Amino acid sequence: MNIIIGIVFILLLSFAYGSLRGAPCVPTKKHDVQRFLNLAEVKENEIFYELGCGDARITCAAGNAGAKATGFDVSLFPFIIAQIRVFFSKNRKNINIKYRDIWFLNFKDADLVYMFLMPETYEKIKPKLEKELKPGARVITYVWPMPGWEAKTIDKIEGYPPMYLYQR
What we know:
The chain is 37% helix and 20% strand. The protein is of the alpha/beta class. The relative contact order is 0.16.
């Protein structure tokens, strides 16, 4: 019984840590994965990062579309679910999930970054992205816009959260 309580405690602690570092674990809606792919126009072998990848449905979609896709998360349970999703992906050689805090990443190689984080996290990560992203890199945010950036495209459909595409 103590082992089960310990496991539950560790999982809850990792959810809390993930929430403090970027956002609680709330996945992108399944019906919005194709919207992401249409907006992103993923290219073969481009470098894709998903910040706070959760169950990795977007990371896997990008990898299956041909990108070298990496998802990052610090919540243990979603990380495990993401690993399982990758295992069953058709193009898993292109997909990698890392248990890593987004604040310790370097975005210099990224061609495309996807985020579904809290608005205050967007405000905090914006200077890091501005400093590290290469010219031409694309950023897609889900639900909330990036403060101070002008979106190249806004994908709005009645009854669905918006997606914002930015290009550096």
